[in-house]
Amino acid sequence: MLQIVRRVIHRRLAVGLASGLIILGMQLAGCSRESSQPQQTPSPPPPTGVTTPAPPPAVITPSRPSDFSLHEPAQRAMPSVVNIFTSKRLRTRRPTLPEGSPLRRFFGEAPDEPTTATSLGSGVIVTKDGLILTNNHVIEGADEIAVVVSAGNRRAPAKIVGADPDTDLAVIKADVQDVPPITFGDSDRLQVGDFVLAIGDPFGVGQTVTMGIVSATGRNRLGINPIENFIQTDAPINPGNSGGALVDVRGELVGINSAIYSESGGSLGIGFAIPVSMAKQVMEQLVKSGRVSRGWLGVEMTELTPEQAKQLGVLDQSGALIARVVPGSPAARAGLRSGDVVRSLNGKAVVDSATLLREITALAPGQTAELVVVRNGNEQQAKVEVGQRPPPARAAR
Q1: Which one, 133, 228, 329, 386, has the greatest CB density within 10 A?
Q2: What is the pLDDT of residue 139?
Q3: How far apart, in Å, are the Cα atoms of 51 and each of 17, 46, 286, 293?
Q4: Residue 17 counted as domain residue
Q5: How much of the chain is in helix, strand and coil states, percent to nearest 5?
């Protein structure tokens, strides 16, 4: 009996639901005939005891595949990145026979054997007349330099315009005037977490694009270059990427890939690029005079330890401790001493020795630098006429 009642109720509900749907369909049809504009027609309530099913969730599909891709910025920057091939002629001395050996009269002295060392790297075309930014270590000591443009695989000889070992940057020039130069971005606006692309020729396999984020900015005291201010990225950078481009999501140049931290020779997700803001300053001087002119005080600096800061009266442990003053240097003439702690330069706070080095080298020789130093627990001012920084091998900071 109970089963029969259930079937009757189900039939009634089904009939009511079908009737409601038929009426709704007729009303909708009438609306479409009466007016082409949609009208708000109230829907009839569902029959008692019937639950209206929820509409299925909307499926969002991209209008184009590139909506979720970095294809466009990569394509914008890739034509401006070139492969660099260098060769250097070497003479390898063969082992000689011992003095007095009877075999010398048969074989004589072994002549030097000429050999050629080759290496690979990358570079970025930055002007319409074929100027190319790259790393100094890519072209250093090379007898021959050639660049290969990815479009058409064209090869052209190149010559060195200037090099700067302090920042590991160099400018070369090649006849690639029909290749569009890259667009410069703003490396000073980069933030940790921003997406970046590394473009170059790793291991000589051909032009390659890898993606990552900015892991850190302002990296220094790594022992890579005398002057350091690196962008750190986890975009894979491998041997052969040196001198290549680090670009942002607009395809604009924000850095020159320079070095990696690796225990195996491959990428471990810790790569370093020179900010384009620094690269532009170096490039302009190299193009103008073939060298970079930097400021120099003639001091060797070290970091403050908590014990030294307390002993010298520097409570917040910020500043650069002068460990030695080069005799006859601008700092010596201004009366600076070993044990002084430089707290500011031209009104800018000095956090550590790397900050002071960066600020000093940015000054032009002949300028007057105003320093605030702590000596014997007391602050005092000093004015120093900035000198010309000597070559890296002999330069104190």
Answers
A1: 133
A2: 95
A3: 10, 7, 78, 81
A4: no
A5: 25, 30, 40
- Burial (CB count within 10 angstroms: exposed 0-12, middle 13-18, buried 19+), residue 164: buried
pLDDT of residue 360: 93
Residues 244 and 277 in one domain: yes
Let me know whether 285 and 366 are in one domain.
no
Residue 219, beta-bridge partner list: 230
Q: Tokens 């000596």 correspond to what residue?
A: 375
For residue 289, give the amino acid letter.
Answer: S
Residue that is last in its domain, among 272, 289, 306: 289
Listed residue (104, 142, 105) closest to 123, CA to CA = 142
The verdict on 329 and 363 lying in the same domain is yes
The residue among 270, 289, 308 that closes a domain is: 289
**What is the per-residue pLDDT across 153-189, written as a single tens digit (0 to 9) for each?**
889 999 999 999 999 999 999 998 889 999 999 999 9
Q: Contact 158/121 with Cβ under 8 angstroms? A: no
Do 352 and 337 lie in one domain? The reply is: yes
103: its two tokens: 């075999």
- Enclosing domain of residue 254: 187-289
The answer for residues whose C-beta is within 8 angstroms of residue 378's C-beta and 6 or more apart is 313
354 domain-assigned: yes
pLDDT band per the 50, 70, 90 thresholds, residue 21:
very low
* Residues forming the active site: 137, 168, 242
Question: Which amino acid belongs to residue 342?
Answer: V
What are the C-alpha distances in Å from 184 to residues 75, 353, 393?
Answer: 15, 30, 32
Token duo for residue 218: 């302002």
| pTM metric for this prediction | 0.72
User: Which class for 47: exposed (0-12), middle (13-18), buried (19 or more C-beta within 10 A)?
Assistant: middle
Q: What is the pLDDT of residues 118-157, one digit of tens each?
A: 778 999 999 999 999 999 999 999 999 999 998 778 899 9
